[in-house]
Prior knowledge:
This protein is mainly β.
Amino acid sequence: MTVDLRPISSGPRFKSAAVRERLESRNYIAVWLENITAPEGDPMTEYEFIIMVFPRELPDPVLFITSERDACYGHASKKGASGKDGGSHFFCLFDADRHYNFGASDSWADPLLFRTEAIIHMVERTGELLRPEGAYL
């Protein structure tokens, strides 16, 4: 199921990040970020990973896929309160309409498992398989 993807006016906020990987397809480019730093004095969600998906010819992203640290994880009184399984990270997606939370799991802190799930969501949303940069011909 592909959807009509529009530029996002509001998404995850961060000051800096390192590029872990670039992915591409015929019509899209995705940039996977890690080592994400929050803006000074800005109380925000802590991100383990962010993937930004852009149409090839446009400057604004149409999707953000994130691994968000669960602030309640590890607190005995709150374990499982925000994520029913008590996982350490939430898997989330932002599009032009809203922020989707697909639940908490320790899996979303693992780069391979996060990337695998993110690829599935990118294919569902774009209708295209994004591959490592240079692999798309």
